[in-house]
Design brief:
The protein has 257 residues and is α+β, with helices and mostly antiparallel strands. It is built from 7 helices and 9 strands. The protein has 2 domains: 85 residues, 434 Repressor (Amino-terminal Domain) (Orthogonal Bundle); 118 residues, Umud Fragment, subunit A (Ribbon). The protein has a 9-stranded mixed beta sheet, with helices on one face. α2 packs across α3.
């Protein structure tokens, strides 16, 4: 379609819709001379503006110009946001661009972490990494063990594969040494089956704290009691420690992944 055909169709659609150039300019946030330039061939609207004009005139780009839009129509909300953005000065647009870039990076990082967890949950091979790589400057890796029982006990030391899990490299997370997945329901409602908990071996464990304990080669997540390891689910039994049990504390639970 020639430039003359485009300008003629724009003018004809505006007139048929009963609008003046000034009314069109007010609706789309432009000045009246710009609309006039589009209808005289002095300049042409960009692709997005063509779609907006056709929506305003109650028609489609395909009906007017004989070609189809390659992306979905803008919603009313999208048009309002686009209009507000176009009305900003250069400083305002730069501010919005910075915020969009930052939020896009944040969401992308979270998506990568989620995909990594799903990959770790489905893999059966043991992964050993001697030097911990970083996804981003603000991300570090910790060891990820697949099970600590909130029930019957799961053997983890020596035979279970260890993977790597990314966490934000914050001051709070620097005390985290490894992560482990909860298996069972004896610590509900605080820790549910399938939760991934963060464990520190640098923080002192006191009575009432939750820790990871190895008892006779089985790993448990339990509350540290004076004479027993406590299950927070009232329907589950506590673990009474006898003098014949071999028990080792593997660290304090300091959070969830």
């Amino acid at each position: 379609m020639t430039k003359e055909e485009i300008e003629a169709k724009l003018k004809a659609k505006r007139i048929s819709y009963g609008m003046t150039q000034q009314e069109v300019a007010d609706k789309i946030g432009r000045k009246q001379p710009i609309v006039g330039h589009w209808e005289t061939g002095y300049s042409q609207p960009d692709e997005n503006t063509l779609f907006i004009l056709c929506d305003l005139y109650g028609t489609t780009v395909d009906d007017v110009f004989g070609f189809k839009k390659e992306h979905p129509s803008l919603s009313k909300r999208d048009k309002e946001v686009l209009k507000k953005y176009n009305n900003l000065d250069s400083f305002g647009k730069e501010t919005i661009d910075i915020a969009l870039d930052r939020e896009t990076e944040r969401v992308t990082s979270l998506k990568k972490q989620k995909e990594r967890i799903e990959e770790l949950e489905t893999t059966t091979a043991s992964t050993i990494i001697d030097i911990q790589p970083r996804l981003e400057n603000n991300t570090r890796f910790i060891e990820y063990h697949h099970s600590a029982s909130a029930g019957t006990g799961v053997f983890i030391l020596g035979s279970e594969g260890v993977d790597q899990l990314p966490i934000p490299d914050t001051q709070e997370n620097r005390k985290v040494d490894y992560a482990i997945k909860v298996s069972g329901n004896s610590m509900e409602p605080d820790y549910n089956d399938g939760d991934i908990v963060l464990v520190s071996q640098k923080v002192e464990l006191n009575h009432g704290d939750v820790g990871i304990f190895i008892i006779n080669n089985d790993a448990y997540i339990k509350e540290y009691g004076e004479t027993e390891l406590i299950s927070r689910n009232p329907d589950a039994d506590n673990i009474i420690i006898s003098e014949y049990d071999n028990i080792v504390c593997m660290g304090k639970v300091v959070g969830k992944y």
